[in-house]
Specification:
Elements (H helix, E strand, L loop, with lengths): L5 H8 E4 L11 H11 L4 H14 L4 H4 L8 H14 L4 E5 L7 H16 L4 E5 L3 H4 L6 E4 L2 E4 L1
Parallel strand pairs: 1-2, 2-3
Antiparallel strand pairs: 4-5
Helix pairs in contact: 2-3, 2-5, 3-5
């Protein structure tokens, strides 16, 4: 562990979907998704294409992809944050309340995308949620009680 470069590991192997989005306010939705790809030295055209693809997969229109985060609803900002994590192609996705700001239809879509990542793309998705419907889709459910984890 001492030899592990944590910044490099996080950039290349783990991606986080934050509950509070953590979007750059002066970048468009598309640029927010492209940014980590460009940090990984991906060609700009390929990063743009991948960002557009992932934003479309979470049903954010081409027109809304050009908007700044402040011009998007909370649910749309959450979908941008999710698209950013999906675009990274990280093996591990840590999702902190990814459906917390979404309506029921978008929540179902996001859970289906996360399940597809798990089963078809063999990625590890760790979901933290209060949403029992989302949690019920997990293979393993752990509950936190009095600061301790309990398996269901």
């Amino acid at each position: 562990m001492e030899e592990l470069n944590l910044d490099e590991y996080r950039r290349d192997h783990a991606s986080v979907i934050y509950q509070n989005f953590n979007l750059f306010p002066l970048l468009t939705a598309k640029e927010n998704v492209m940014y980590p790809l460009l940090l990984k030295k991906m060609e700009k055209m390929k990063a743009r294409q991948q960002a557009e693809e992932k934003l479309c997969s979470v049903e954010l229109t081409k027109e809304k992809q050009k908007r700044m985060p402040a011009q998007l609803s909370g649910g749309e900002q959450q979908r941008v944050a999710i698209a950013r994590a999906l675009a990274s192609e990280a093996e591990i996705i840590l999702a902190d309340e990814p459906t917390g700001n979404l309506d029921s239809e978008n929540s179902k879509n996001i859970i289906n995308i996360l399940k597809e990542l798990t089963y078809k793309e063999k990625r590890c998705v760790i979901l933290v949620t209060h949403d029992n419907k989302a949690a019920s889709q997990a293979d393993i459910i752990l509950h936190m009680k009095d600061g301790k984890l309990e398996e269901e």
